[in-house]
Amino acid sequence: MSHALEPALPAPQVLISEVGPRDGLQSVAATMPLAAKCAWIDALAASGLSEIEVGSFVPTRLLPQMADTAEVVRHALRHPGLTVMALVPNRRGAEAALEAGVHKLTIPVSASAAHSMANVRKTREEMVQEVRAIVALRDQRAPDVRVEAGVSTAFGCTLQGGVPEDEVVALAVALAEAGADDVGLSDTTGMANPAQVRRLFQRCFAAIGSKTGAAHMHNTRGLGLANCLAAYDVGVRTFDSSQGGLGGCPYAPGASGNVVTEDLVFMFEAMGVRTGVDLARLFAAREALRAGLPGEPIYGMTPEAGLPKGFAQETAHG
Prior knowledge:
Helix content: 40-55%
Shape: globular
CATH superfamily: Aldolase class I
Largest sheet: 8 strands, parallel, barrel
């Protein structure tokens, strides 16, 4: 049956990168079964999300929730046009991810020295070298795969407190020089405020230009959307978020809640900034999440309140 005459959403002006299947699922105690993960990813892809972080290649003993990531990647690759992304903490993980066929690798590099040791048991300098090694591996085996470095704890750390902005910018420069295609900033512990977000991203754009990547914000203190808007205002066009606000960081105590994808998409669409995501289908995908993680609390103001009277997403015939 052809869907050629169905109305299509206009070309997106921002990229919403869905991280729930990785960042969300690694942060809850329960393990979502493989079939349920695949069904959830299918529902997310059906909403028009064009990039999904489907898992991470990490030791199973550390994160048993991610043991089936290679199988999840292979399933996700069936969706044409979907960028399938996975997190890798080291070269060994990158080897497994490339073997599985991912389109994009993302590597967490902590700006906080304390968090770096807790999260990956390496110093920041060692992680820059790890990125360099992963880029070399990518160049050799799969040159079309993109490498994204995410500067985690860029806005503060629950373990050490404040993280000097000069150190964040210097780390972003080192990662760009190590060969990362994009360098994003992550509010891993939910400590950022809009003025700080604006300032740090402006400094990154000044230092590494177009290699400045995604804003990965958490809603721990209710500022997630405000921080995303601050990043948008200074030129950021890629935003990580998680359906239902699932997720956090298992190695950063008290770091709850990614930005809710549904609320982020609604904010941009209400502003007239196109995301390429169909809100009705995105809301429907919550049922697949609920089915896979029964009893797990999921959040979102927009899905609970419903769309405002008269609100309609602009469509264009494709």
